[in-house]
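Lab channel / #folding
Pinned by the channel admin:
"Please post every new chain as: sequence first, then the structure tokens as a reply. Keep commentary short and put observations after the output so the thread stays searchable."

First post following the new format, from NK:
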Amino acid sequence: IRTMKDLSKLIICIIAAALAAALTSDLKAQVIGGLMMNKVYTTEEIVSVLGAPDTIRWDCYYFFEYTEDRPVQAASPQVTGQDRPYYTRPKTDQIGFTPEGEDRWYFYCYYIYTDRFDYNGKIRVGDHISKVREMDCYIREERYDDSAKYAGVVHLGPEKDSGIDESRIEWMCCPNFYYDENGIIIEMDLYCD
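Reply from TO:
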């Protein structure tokens, strides 16, 4: 922390993390790539489970970033009648933490764009969205008619047998599974502020 402005940002982020933990405490345990959310880990524990991050970046939270080059098919062929070519583009998964003292990190949020990390050992980017719909949880789905990237998103709420009244679910604090026009999950995230 270099300035009072950085300290103020850090305090606001810690308060937001505490509020989000309270709002999501009724959700079943969420495990991303082997780490349970809303728990505190050392850097060594994070690296032993997720691997060493390519970068650690501060943006209201400390994001442990894992970047891979991924094949992407071009939108159209370069020459009429040819197949659309593939090229590689870097994709970065981000696992967000708030500091909880010296070398202690509270696992707070995530943005997953590759199949490197799974959700609760069951769902990965690249799976069909039906895997999310089949879970015995409350679900809210939105379709996007005007998005070039997403056909829709499924918000995954608590388990149906949790005793939670569906009308009281804080959907903005639930995991999101974005899918394309073929029903393939292309992004998973959870960010609650």
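NK: The longest helix spans residues 4-24.
TO: also worth noting, Helices lie at 4-24, 43-50, 130-133.
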